[in-house]
Design a protein that fits this description.
Number of strands: 14
Number of helices: 18
Strand order of the largest sheet: 4-3-2-1-5-6-7-8
Shape: globular
Number of domains: 2
CATH class of the largest domain: Alpha Beta
Distance between the termini: 6 Å
Radius of gyration: 22 Å
Strand content: 5-15%
CATH topology of the largest domain: Rossmann fold
CATH superfamily of the largest domain: Glycogen Phosphorylase B
Oligomer: single chain
Largest sheet: 8 strands, mixed
CATH architecture of the largest domain: 3-Layer(aba) Sandwich
Length: 439
């Protein structure tokens, strides 16, 4: 079986969990004998023919244009960075747009009852017209969509797999051109990102993508409920496949400490959805009792300046640190140097970072409003808005290093069983059910 896969992220083109998940999915599918033609938002019309497991790291490249294929094959690159730059995957993709804080997530989840009902299918040409907005990301989505026809005509495949709203319209075009079945993978809805109505253009794309899809994959029961209740998608075609993690700790032996005292880590986008302000408020409480504790906020996002200013206002000084966006080995080093990981997300479709933290033996605290809470037991679970309880749970782990170590070790053992191999078996079952073909 061969899959035509559209995604906005894949290492080294990565800005968040979407790229991490797609890497794990493609690698897992290749292990099961499924081939993947991967399409990314590159400046050149290329695709990545994945045929063996090592291809996820080597990223073999093919051009749709014979002339460009010849030029590429005769070009000598000093390193992978030059090669990636040539095809246009050297920078961080704009996978997430900024949202205004019209209302807090707390207000939304406690009081918001109105449903945006898309009972009438939006004509596809209307979607294309509506996404030509002022934001550059919408123009890129439009260009990506228009390219999809050429990929669908040039390549041979059995099923189409599109990840998140950024590629749903490309998936629809490919389905229309090829007549092949479409699977849309919902990693996060606009409700998760915006905490309410959000951008209607994105809602329309999400709704149309899932409506036109022959099957929908949701990363958690939490997300599947959102898909059915908010977008009115037929439950018969919604499949829950939980995410997993990619961390390989065969070379990891011991923690490399940065500070002598406990380090409490937040790692993720610094945006409304992830609840960085709740992490900051908890830090303020804890530092009054344990002033030597270090809090690290690793990531970047539209709320970064606000959190920096608020940290300064609270006079937290060098006890609350910002690393900026991290990836690759720097993420590994940050996990290895920390004692407690906190995911304070307000609405988290899944949440891969806690699995990665637990794989390092970190005691982990997660929001109850997350998909990952469905699959792990050895983590502390709190409501995102309960800052006092969050602070209390962190204090317990600071005061009781033995409990912290035990929780971390149990968590490490638990996530060893949450592998992409198992998730990909379920994805293959979705492919088989959707296409009527067995692998």
């Amino acid at each position: 079986m061969r899959v035509l896969m559209f995604t906005w992220e894949f290492p080294p083109l990565i800005s968040g969990g979407l790229g991490t998940a797609c890497y794990g999915i493609v690698k897992g599918l290749l292990k099961k004998g499924v081939e993947v033609d991967l399409v990314l938002p590159t400046k050149e019309e290329v695709y990545f023919p994945m045929r063996k497991v090592s291809d996820v790291d080597d990223l073999p490249v093919k051009f749709l244009s014979p002339a460009k294929e010849i030029e590429y094959s005769h070009t000598v690159f000093k390193n992978n960075s030059e090669r990636f730059s040539f095809i246009g995957i050297s920078s961080t993709p704009e996978s997430y747009i900024s949202v205004s804080e019209v209302k807090t997530f707390y207000e939304y989840f406690k009081n918001y009852t109105e449903k945006i009902e898309f009972r009438t299918r939006v004509p596809f040409h209307e979607i294309l017209n509506n996404i030509s907005g002022t934001e550059d990301i919408f123009e890129k989505v439009k260009e990506f969509t228009l390219r999809a026809e050429r990929y669908a005509r040039a390549l041979n495949f059995d099923v189409i797999h599109a990840h998140d709203w950024l590629t749903y319209t490309a998936g629809i075009i490919a389905k229309s051109v090829s007549g092949k079945k479409l699977v849309c993978h919902m990693h996060a809805t606009e409700f998760d990102r915006a905490g309410g109505s959000g951008d209607p253009r994105i809602h329309n794309i999400e709704y149309s993508g899932m409506t036109e899809a022959d099957s929908v994959i949701a990363v958690s029961k939490y997300t599947s409920t959102m898909v059915v209740s908010r977008y009115m998608i037929d439950t018969a075609k919604v499949n829950v496949v939980h995410n997993a993690h990619n961390i390989d700790l065969k070379d990891f032996e011991e923690r490399k400490r940065i500070f002598k005292d406990p380090v409490i880590l937040f790692l993720g986008r610094i945006t409304l959805q992830k609840g960085p302000d709740y992490f900051l408020e908890a830090a303020k409480i804890i530092l009054k009792k344990y002033p030597k504790t270090r809090f690290v906020m690793a990531g970047a996002g539209d709320m970064e300046k606000k959190i920096v200013h608020k940290s300064a206002k609270y006079r937290l000084g060098n006890k609350f640190l910002f690393t900026g966006f991290l990836k690759g080995s720097h993420v590994d080093e940050m996990f290895a140097a920390s004692d407690v990981y906190v995911m304070s997300s307000v609405s988290e479709p899944f949440g891969i970072a806690p699995l990665e933290a637990m794989s390092y033996g970190l005691a982990t605290i997660i929001s109850k409003q997350s998909g990952v809470a469905e699959v792990i037991q050895n983590a502390v679970k709190v409501d995102f808005w309960d800052v006092e309880l969050l602070a209390d749970e962190i204090i317990k782990l600071i005061e009781n290093p033995d409990i912290r170590t035990e929780l971390g070790e149990k968590g490490r053992q638990e996530v060893e069983l949450i592998k992409w191999d198992r998730a990909c078996e379920e994805i293959i079952q979705v492919y088989e059910k959707t296409t009527g073909r067995t692998l």
